[in-house]
């Protein structure tokens, strides 16, 4: 069986390739796509086949997917350009007649009103329209969106957000990757998996971070436009800052809330807890 993973050079994709190999898939059956030469070389070293392909290059995508049995389309990172890019992958998968197209979408993609959800929803619609057998892996937030900011939380003694009391079902990339590998290997995966871990509010995040770091950390809820200004002040481009603030509003409305049942069913174990993820991120690197 030939399994193609797009975005394999990214944080999630590398973990998916590793999870497939850990599950016993022979390296010769895995094809990893991306653009970054250095990361493709790291994947080469694992024995998988690598191809340097840009989502904009429809011909290269057709070549890369020819003969594929199953494809995991990991959503691209260039917000605003993703639908056209994803459509190229879907067309190549259709031309190859793949037996399964799996797509990493966003939690509650069909109802979410977050700006970020629009391209995912449109991609899901394009996948359905292709007529290909498919599965949607609707990932909630990555826990790393928060654990990557531990130093900032510690420095300022606060977690800033615009999510109110909303709860987010964040899970680690490693858990999402393992779940994606498991779904890709099922005979007949479900059409939709709503994936996320045990939900927490940003107030609970602050408490957990404070407990693990042994510091006072509180949650400060801001109006979305003020959060945008703070993020711009911290160096983020204005458009991206506004999208992140909008995502917090979506979090407040429950757009990123799902039950952990689908993730845990694919994992066959409980999802990694927030406290464990924060402890791992805070641990000194050896
Ligand atoms: N749920 C969440 O909290 C969350 C947070 C952030 C992102 N996401 C979504 O989840 C995806 C995977 O997350 P991640 O952490 O692995 O992101 P990442 O590390 O930024 O990886 C993105 C991957 O997409 C590839 N890519 C982007 N544009 C491409 C293009 N034009 N042609 C070919 N490949 C392209 C990149 O390839 P190269 O690096 O080789 O160019 C890379 O492999 C993201 O792309 C984004 O859609 C979700």
From TrEMBL:
Record-annotated NAD(P)-binding domain positions: 7-184
InterPro entries: NAD(P)-bd_dom, NAD(P)-bd_dom_sf, NmrA-type_oxidoreductase
Coiled-coil ranges per UniProt: none
Pfam families: NAD_binding_10
Top-level taxonomic group: Bacteria
Protein name: SDR family oxidoreductase
SUPFAM superfamilies: NAD(P)-binding Rossmann-fold domains
């Amino acid at each position: 069986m030939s399994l193609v993973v797009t975005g394999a050079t990214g944080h999630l994709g590398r973990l998916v390739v590793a999870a497939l190999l850990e599950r016993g898939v022979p390296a010769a059956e895995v094809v990893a796509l991306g653009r970054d030469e250095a990361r493709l070389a790291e994947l080469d070293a694992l024995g998988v086949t690598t191809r340097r392909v840009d989502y904009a290059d429809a011909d290269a995508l057709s070549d890369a997917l020819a003969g594929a049995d199953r494809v995991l389309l990991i959503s691209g990172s260039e917000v605003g350009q993703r639908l056209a890019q994803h459509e190229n992958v879907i067309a190549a998968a259709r031309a190859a007649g793949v037996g399964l197209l799996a797509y990493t979408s966003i939690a509650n993609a069909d109802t979410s009103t977050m700006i970020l959800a629009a391209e995912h929803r449109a991609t899901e619609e394009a996948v359905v329209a292709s007529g290909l057998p498919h599965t949607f892996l609707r990932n909630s937030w990555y826990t790393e969106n928060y654990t990557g900011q531990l130093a900032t939380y510690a420095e300022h003694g606060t977690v800033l957000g615009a999510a109110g009391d909303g709860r987010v079902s964040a899970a680690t990339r490693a858990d999402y990757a393992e779940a994606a590998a498991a779904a890709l290997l099922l005979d007949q995966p479900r059409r939709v998996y709503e994936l996320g871990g045990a939900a927490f509010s940003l107030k609970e995040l602050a408490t957990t971070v404070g407990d693990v770091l042994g510091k006072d950390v509180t949650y400060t809820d801001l109006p979305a436009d003020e959060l945008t200004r703070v993020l711009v002040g911290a160096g983020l481009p204005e458009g991206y800052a506004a999208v992140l603030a909008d995502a917090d509003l979506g979090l407040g409305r429950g757009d990123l809330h799902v039950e952990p049942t689908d993730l845990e069913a694919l994992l066959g174990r409980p999802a990694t807890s927030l406290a464990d993820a924060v402890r791992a991120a805070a641990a000194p690197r050896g």
